[in-house]
Amino acid sequence: MKAAVIYWSGTGNTEIMANAIADGMVSAGCETEVFDVTSFKGSVKDYDKIAFGCPSMGDEVLEECDFEPFFESVESSLSGKKIALFGSYGWGDGLWMRNWEKRCEDLNANLFETGLIINSTPNDEGKEKCKAFGSDFAKY
Going from the N-terminus, what domains does the chain have, and what CATH number goes with each? Predict the structure, then answer.
């Protein structure tokens, strides 16, 4: 089983989540690579599972300069693919995540649970939630 965690992070909060999720996946025995979205040069088709991470931006949307164009470019490869979503937020109620989940369901992606969201910087409890999320996703 080969997995990727692909994320965008402006303040480092979603990066912390990405690394903790990857730690959980690895601890569950899943070969996992972590990429900032701008450094990912491979193909999502090469992975059995992908966890995508992006914080809420602006009016509760995905980051528009790097992450949104990347995600649009891989959407056609997500049908049937096991994916998980996560991200941090500083305001709002998670609308960006609910919209993202719906978008993935419309693509017929095999979406794991509901997206994991954490307000601001993940504390120790938040990091443990991320690790558990990653471990459970690895077993999905």
Answer: 2-139 (3.40.50.360)
